[in-house]
Amino acid sequence: MRTVSDIHEALKHYFGFEKFKGEQEKIILRLLEGKDVFVLMPTGGGKSLCYQLPALMSEGTAIVISPLIALMKNQVDALRHHGESNGVAHFLNSSLTRKEITAVKRDVKEGTTKLLYVAPESLSKEENIKFLKSIKISFFAIDEAHCISEWGHDFRPEYRRIRPLISKIGEYPVIALTATATPKVQHDIQKNLGILKAEVFKSSFNRSNLYYEVRPKTKDVDRDIIRYIKTNPGWSGIIYCLSRKKVEELAETLKINGISCLPYHAGMDASTRSENQDAFLHEEVDIIVATIAFGMGIDKPDVRFVIHYDIPKSLEGYYQETGRAGRDGEGGRCITFYSSKDLQKLDKLMQTKSSTEQEIARHLLMETAAYAESSVCRRKILLHYFGENYTEENCGCCDNCTHPKKRIEAGEELALALELIQATGEKYRQEYISNLMIGRKTDEVRFNGHDQLELFGSVRHFEEKLCLTLLRQAVIADYLERDLENYGVVKLTEQGRAFIENPLSFEIVEDVDYTEIDSEPQVRGGEACAADPVLYAMLRDLRKKFARRFKLPPYVIFQEPSLEAMATTYPVTEEELLNIPGVGVGKAKRFGKEFLELIKTHVDENDILRPEDIRVRAMPKKNNLKVAIIQGIDRKIDLEELADAKGLEFTELIDELESIVESGTKIDINYYIEEVMDEDVVDDIYDYFMDTEEDDIEQAIQELGEDTDEEQIRLVRVKFLSEMGN
Q1: How many CB atoms lie within 10 A of CB 98?
Q2: How far apart are CA 405 and CA 382, in angstroms?
Q3: Nearest CA among 491, 503, 509, 500 for reference residue 411
């Protein structure tokens, strides 16, 4: 029998530590006593030591079942530093040659190997089962045990076959370990492994050094990320994207903007992935942009931030990925960009799954969306999700606590909701209860006869979204609980039953409405669109001076949207000016200097802090259509033939021509105008544009009369802008 003194001595001998973290000591003692153990410990809590130390202390070889080849390799490399020979730890998987497999088995047979890492697929091979039956095994360790559960964030079907395989080899103690598991997933793991009687060791999920924040995902998300990274120079960070394509695009964008980063995803060849991972671990680059293929088992302590470019598919995945920040105990920021449109994209991706998989995936996604949209303390929501009660009202370390929203009294509504749940037998999901609360007669409600309930529609003064908010916050407040066997179903707690008898005050916080953020207003003309109305007025005055100097209408110099953009982003160099809508090289060269001088003087005199990144630089992309149109005009191809050749309606071709000349590029379409239009009509239209200060086609049609059609007016306007403005 091993004593506490024995394991402390072994800890010092093998790992050089003086003391254990958390409940490591108890876990190791139980395993050495031959008992089954279930370990639920957050990332960075020291799970690996819980099976590595007892393996080193035990007679025989511990079989560690692990899901990833890269993870196995990292663990084995680390263990070899602690052992007296390289043979102390090995892995057995598909990456090995026949010769290497023979060498591994020899070390195991000779008793040199204390830990043998295998993938579940390798475990299922008959030759490996035969081999494992022939050796002395100390115990089985199932790492990343959440992979067993269909309700886990990284379910792997082959993990559900582990128990029968272990039983085929023999009866041995089992230790299952995971960093993330809800009560339902925990139950599923223990049930599937046949260790329902295992002693459970559950550490707190509270990472007090992490700051959680959800930001609206707008069209400027790349700019927001670049600004964040540049305002925190030298910080090490991970940016997670859902697709490989987005990983590549974002990594390229960051590089172009002077940020030290590399991509990582499963579509890259193994050597490149390994090189990029090592470059990040060895601090050769600051940032890694990756899919969730990156990070499992990566022990980099000084990651200062984790950014989710896309909403994660589950809260378990989110928790594990954010848990890679601040593992050294210092501060870490976890920023998620969220748009309700992303939910629709993810929902479409589920169409190829089976109906059961779709149902599970949608429930997990709904939990994540509810977390993102909630105005409740994010730490409280996360911890409750993992079955832990966080009693502080304000954690002071999430966006919802540092910027709290107004609370709404909903004690009466909660009592009504609880009564509805009780009246319907406590066997329905939150969405169904919400329908009853607001009085929505769905087919299911009618079929069950619940539209006849006296309480049906009793909370119709709340919108559906607010009803769901109420129910979710009632779960967190322990008035309701989730049914472990029937996911999504809510049941009354003892506290909930007491509330029905004696209703109290219950305040809720409205969720954030991201649909309003998603539907940003379209930019319209007018002073209200400029962030700096004073500068906007000055730019308009300068434009008038140019117009008088060149005897041109003001809009020919720069159009309204261009001035609005200048008064918002403050360009002070020609490069920045070229990023303004409607400003091409021609306009920038011809008119830009004085406009830039005016803006720079205004910025300096008013001590204006310009955005750190006026624009996000991107890979230069040639607009092949515009280039082809310009080349076609240079060759004097008939415009109607040009439109047909490019698959455009004639009006669409004119749209492209307008875009070309409005950005300052000169084109000559006289050959076509002279062919199809009367010279007097051309002169009349041309004179109209020369004399008017209003660039309005509708007004031009009214002024020029019904004999002149819109296409003619627009073509002459293109000629006019090209000749007079460019």
Answers
A1: 6
A2: 19
A3: 503
Chain segment 175-218, per-residue pLDDT in tens? 999 988 888 888 899 999 999 999 999 988 899 999 999 998 88
Per-residue pLDDT reduced to its tens digit, 460-475: 999 888 998 899 889 8
Instruction: Give the integer Cα–Cα distance in Å for 712 and 718.
Output: 10
Residue spans per domain, the chain: 4-202, 210-402, 407-517, 527-605, 624-725
Q: Could you check whether 407-517 and 624-725 share the same CATH topology? A: yes
What type of residue sits at position 549?
Answer: R
- Which pair of tokens denotes residue 172? 């041995």
Beta bridge partners of residue 374, listed in sequence order: none
pLDDT of residue 173: 95
Instruction: Give φ, ψ of 499 to 5 degrees.
Output: -65, -35
> What is the rounded distance in angstroms from the CA atom of residue 60 to the CA atom of residue 539?
81
Alpha-carbon distances, residue 726 vs 520, 674, 711 (angstroms): 33, 21, 21
**Beta-carbon contacts of residue 271 (< 8 Å; ≥ 6 apart):** none
**CATH classification for the domain delimited by 527-605, as one of 3.30.70.270, 3.30.70.930, 3.30.470.20, 1.10.150.80:** 1.10.150.80
Radius of gyration of the chain (CA): 33
Phi, psi of 349 (to 5 degrees): -65, -20
In the 8-state DSSP scheme, what is residue 376? S
Domain 407-517 CATH class label: mainly alpha
CA atoms within 13 A on the CB side of 717: 26
Q: Which two tokens stand for residue 391?
A: 């009693």
- CATH fourth-level superfamily of 624-725: ATP-dependent DNA helicase RecQ (1.10.10.1390)
End-to-end CA gap in the chain: 91
Q: How far apart are CA 306 and CA 239, in angstroms?
A: 6
